[in-house]
Amino acid sequence: MISAPREAQARVGPVGALLFRLVFLAICLPGPLLLAVAVTLAPPRSSAEFWGLLAGGILATIIGVGFGVLGLRLVTRSRRDARRLSSGGVAATAEILAVTNQPGGEEPALELRLRISGPGFATFEAESIRPVDPALVPGAVLAAVVHPADRLFTIV
Fold this sequence. Notes:
By secondary structure, the protein is α+β, with helices and mostly antiparallel strands. Helices cover about 45% and strands about 30% of the residues. Strand 3 (about 110-115) and strand 4 (about 125-130) form a beta hairpin. Helix 1 runs antiparallel to helix 3 (about 45-90) and helix 2 packs antiparallel against helix 3 (about 45-90).
């Protein structure tokens, strides 16, 4: 079964991956710490303080762990994509078929419709978002790397 083409996540190096993982771990910690404080705080406190700390801890845990796990998965996927392309990727060409402005966002971007071809896989079409560049016009040819088994690709 041939999967739909997918552009590789932006490459994150080993130092960046370590820093990202530490930040995502730090995002996960405040909620469980609040829960621990709510349960183990030694001086007697009012019921409102206890329930406030408990509710805040539960909410912070759900949100923090959710964002932390999402971030960890993104870093892991980026590293996995880079390894797969470096070990089994083949050189390919990506011809730009169409260029449209990408609405929204802080920085202007272009949405490219590409036809990617190369040895060892059937030609396929895919989309990619790139920063605005006057060289990105229909008919231009870009270098690419494709993992033939699952059509994972990146524009180089």
